[in-house]
Amino acid sequence: MNNYKRVNALEIRRLAMRTFVKDIKGNVALNIFPILMRLVAMYFGTRIYNSWLGELGVSFSNPQAASERLTEISQQMANDPSAATKYALSLTPGSSVIVFAFMFFFVLVCTGVGYTMLDKMRNPDYEINALKDSLQVFSGNFFFPVLFITTMLGVFIEAGLSLYIIPGIWFFLIFSQSFYVLKDDVDKNKTWSIRSAFLSLTKSSRMMRGYKTTLFFICFEFLLWEIVNLMTHEILSIWLHPYEQLTLAAFYAKISEANDANSNKAAA
User: Is residue 30 classed exposed, middle or buried when 0-12, 13-18 and 19+ CB atoms within 10 A define those classes?
Assistant: First the structure.
């Protein structure tokens, strides 16, 4: 087993950065839709957040009064935990539908971007068509199975998070490669089926054996960068989003190569 091929986070980051630097303009153009969506989400999210604070009687134009009001709310929730629902941020049913639709569209576009970046890594001569490639998931071969996997992942992760945080993270890690597995299956078989969508979840679980910790720390790095990005009001997304998508694609490219190599060794 010690002779089996392994990959590490450093070589994944190097591959992602190397691919990004080779075609900065093409990679940014490919990610233009998700970058714009992140900027839009930041704008409306800030407005919703400020509106919610206004309803709570918190205004940062007067920092001292805001601090006193937040302290008062904290004390009320500490004395009566049921009071938390009174202060929780809530959306109208119509707004919730819009948010979920926005998130679904964002995931679908990011999946198409990831597919293109994977193709670019495997074939350096691949010519990026920003509009066509970023929207490729909306084609007949990918749309329904990707929508199905997105829904299943949402159910698994939400169920895990509702129990404890750790099961939700665990489900995310083991099923994280499902979209890429589906792409390789569709590219190979030139068609899709519900069975292939189900199998992509199973194959992802097998592929992630021994790599969950690696992906966890990669995502933790993303989290730290996203915190910095919030301070720039998502402007950093112009670089950060393509880098994140490239890193995830590089992760799959490397572990799929390692799994294939290990399978060949085991069969020999």
Answer: buried
Q: How long a stretch of residues is the chain?
A: 268
Residue with tokens 């969506």: 37
Q: How confident is the model at residue 77 (pLDDT cuts 50, 70, 90)?
A: confident
Q: How confident is the model at residue 4 (pLDDT cuts 50, 70, 90)?
A: low
Could you tell me if 109 and 34 are in contact, meaning their C-beta atoms sit under 8 angstroms apart? yes
> How many whole angstroms separate alpha carbon 248 and alpha carbon 244?
6
Greater pLDDT, 1 or 151: 151
User: Sorting pLDDT into bands at 50, 70 and 90, what band is 80?
Assistant: confident
SS3 192: coil
Ordered alpha helix ranges (H), the chain: 9-22, 24-30, 32-55, 63-79, 84-87, 93-122, 130-134, 143-163, 165-175, 178-189, 194-207, 212-231, 237-267
Give the other-Cβ count within 10 Å of 253's Cβ. 20
CB-based contact 135:30 (threshold 8 Å): no
- Is 70 exceeded by the pLDDT of residue 90? no
DSSP assignment of 151-180: HHHHHHHHHHHHH-HHHHHHHHHHHTTHHH
Which pLDDT does position 223 carry in this prediction? 94
Integer Cα distance of 76 and 69 in angstroms: 11
